[in-house]
Amino acid sequence: MSARNRRAGHDFERLLVSEFRQLGFPDARTSRLASKERDDAGVDLCGTDPFNVQAKRWKAAPSYHAVLASMPADSNYNVIVHRRPRQGDVVVMSKADFFELVGMLKTERIL
Q1: pLDDT tens by residue, 40-72
Q2: CB 39 within 8 A of CB 31
Q3: How far apart, in whole angstroms, are the C-alpha atoms of residue 44 and residue 56?
């Protein structure tokens, strides 16, 4: 990985930290700063419970299934935020986790 790509990835992580803080996660921070254990487990952001967030800034789509499979199997929802230059950002998670979140929103009459 080139230094330029590495810097772009770190910049994307810091942007996501800022966005999570704006969403009401005041303790959001990069795992590089907060927890080597979480960083080694493939989680790029800490303080975003109930979400384990992996940030990807690649031109090509990563193997979403492989990335999700490499993330912790804990009580948090594993999500990938993928930024493709000039095409925007997407969030990827398992269908089971997505349906569980939708079910909770329906139960709480938010949807």
Answers
A1: 888 999 999 999 999 999 888 889 999 999 999
A2: yes
A3: 9
